Amino acid sequence: MFRTTDMVLIAVMLSAAAFTYKIKGDAEAKLAEIRRLETSIRLEEDTIDVLKADWSLLTQPARLQRLTEIYKSQLELEPVEARQIVEIGDLPMPPPLPIEDGTSQPLGGMADSGQDPVVTGGVVR
Amino acid sequence: MIRLWKKFRGTAAEGAARPRSIVMEGARKSTGGRTRHRVLMSVAVFFGLYAAIGGRLVYLGLQEPPASSAPGVHITASRPDLVDRNGEVLATDIKTASLFAEPRRIVDIDEAIEKLATVLPDLDYNQTYRKLDSDAGFVWLRRQLSPRQQAEIMALGVPGLGFRTEKRRFYPGGSTASHILGLVNIDNKGIAGMEKYVDDQGLADLQATGLAVPGNLEPVRLSVDLRVQHVVHDELVQGMEKYHAIAAGAVVLDAKTGEVVAMASVPDYDPNKPYNALEKDRLNRMSAGVYEMGSTFKLFTTAMALDSGLVSINDSFDATRALRIAGFTINDFHGKHRVLTVPEIFIYSSNIGTAKMADVVGIEGHREFLKRVGLLDRMRTELPEVAHPTEPRVWKKLNSITISFGHGVATTPLQTAMAAAAMVNGGKLIPPTFLPRTESEAAAIAEQVISPETSALMRYLLRLNAERGSGRRADVEGYFVGGKTGTAEKVVNGRYSSDKRFNAFIASFPANDPDYVVLVIIDEPKPEKPGMGATAGLNAGTMAGNIIRRSAPLLGVKPDFGHESAALLVSR
Description:
heterodimer, A: mainly alpha, 55% helix, elongated, B: alpha+beta, 5-stranded antiparallel β-sheet, 19 helices, 39% helix
């Protein structure tokens, strides 16, 4: 007794139901994913907080001072004296470098060994 | 059925229209009436069914969920981090997990304890067994576990165990900056120091309205430099031990902005374990204690005399004989017994000469000057712990004379540092602050208390004293330190005692244009070794020198070896 329209309508209904079911399942999966991510973000944030506190604990000047005192003899560490602090303008000019006469060699004697031993991506072999 | 219903209605209307005609109703009534009845019945049944379901829903919605035996989640108020001027953390919130058990739900006590012991090896077996064997709904097993321990216990999968997250304030520096940072109570509310200040600035209201969530609290930046703070704290601890003192304190103040770069007072406490924080001996001596500052006050007396215009730097005063007034004799500690010029009075720290300078200004002028430089009023700053300075009720001539060399007026050391900064920075009195402040902001609130010319003279005198006078031990090569010592006798049983001293040292560097003022105090120092002295130059001066030597490079003060003090005087 079924007419074609009925068949079509039933098919549409079934597919709509299936579609809704799938959407619902997907949404639940997404929600679960969101919850998981939120948990892991919270965990990361807490870890960052703890690590920050840990870092400031490790870089405490009091701790660093203790360490420098312990390793003073091995690392030869000494407090900076005021006389050791100078600005670049206060430094004397370095003596001029001697300029060698490279005119007798090709390329100023810099690349005369024929081939560069270093092989890079740009070297044609 | 609808057709039947229509038919029925139609006949009913017909009947109404023709009331006098004979209508046979029996057959219709026997069918139509019953149908109507059935429809109503089913409507009622369905309505009742849905009403019951709806009612049940409302009932369930209104009902409280069954109470768990564990205590409700305790929301501890979040606080912003406190960071130093370079962004280093001074105080932060960390989350800790606390382990609890619900003994009723534990299946096998022995197994649970055995498993727990693999993570917490120091767990007391008998005590834990007794706890878990009881019929209690809830017992704490261990407070404040590390995140790793928490994860390991979770991995054990023992039923009946659970965690509560608790927020705890953590101070990585321990006691280094304890007096500046202050304290929080068990509910994470600030009860002292800058923690209390932050609460008073509106954090308490935020917490009350529930807006103080961890994500949206900006860290509070302080003017303190953690590195310099450590240097100061370290030198104080060493100094207190070396000179067998009962207490010591120091402050490093930015002379141009009034920012407190470092401030410490020992003995102190560890804010992470503040069990002894409220002991009277551990108060913040720098702002909450008042002391007679001794000869460091000569700095203010000399500035007052020079600024009044009645005394010039080239004047001389007779310090040959002791000064007798109202039955008291004022004498010099390092007596020269001759006529002294103003710079000589300053560097030999002559009581007689200073008293005579104060006498020139007069009692009223003296009091007015000290009031102007903020030494007689309660200082305004962010720290809640600030003491009120004391002064004589009536200023007599004797008071003015003793106050001229620092006996008779008791001020807080921080306040004295503030006034000393005004003496050397060109005469601007800037209230000290623990929050960052720029020079232009400082200029807006600064008060001109002495002329820039007088200030230049004071810089010269301080430098001269560090070069030739009592402040030699505080001089640091390259940083051009100026300083003034102060050795005050302490009042014991109403009399000044000659063997109990309160020493202070005011230093400024670089002396030609001071960036920083350092004030060191040390209470009842004894000689470092028997036979040595215990005056301020030997202990407070040395400590100030050490603080400057270690902290000047950190503060970015450029060492300079080109200066001559004579040039400072000429260029004033």
